[in-house]
Fold D-3-phosphoglycerate dehydrogenase.
Amino acid sequence: MTSIPVNPAGEGGPSSAAGSRPRILVPEKVSPDGLALLTPHFDVDVRQGITPEELLTVIPTYQGLIVRSETKVTADVLRAGAALKVVARAGVGVDNIDVPAATARGVIVINSPAGNIVAAAEHTVALLLATARHVGRADRGVKDGRWERSQLVGVEVGRKTLGVVGLGKVGLHVARMAKGLGMTVVAVDPYANPDMARQAGVELLPGLREMLPAVDFLTIHTPLLATTADLVGEPELKMMRKTARVLNVARGGV
């Protein structure tokens, strides 16, 4: 196990004298390998499980804040963090960070969009196959002492049509993997690169209205923005085949 010289919660307060080096607060679990890259240049304080009230109390002495999805970086947090220069999201989405408030205070917000592309795509394909073969239902049934074999046959995904909403890095990776499974892939994304889609064997469609009635599986890979909130709701689901399966590997608000 790699030893990382960070200051864990509750052990001795600040890890160096005030003003000697920039200080970074990490209130959530972040890869030790990543933190090891920071410790030669910064004082890194790992305080997992810190409450929102405690965050407001301690944030004034930090220049950097690294979060995942649990910590809410609100306007109040940014106001209290008068010394903050940067808020880093160890992941893709930044919907737990008040970006306009940060911008107004001159605080840079960064994320790591390439950090989990493969993991998210593989998770999507795992969910796709699990829904196709009723893996979740079979697991529950066996644990309850039931073996419903005739009801768990499921479907083959080969020669089925997958619809991808959002053909970004993750969506495109999913599309390529689905092609490897023998699926037909269509997608909706107004910002997608047509050449990249064509090279991946993906047909771009004008919108959801054209795509939803034609797909057997639907997977969603868009950020949560004002333009994508409630993107797929009851009206859209009614356009789909009754046998279609929907995967949301994006944000719940989509």
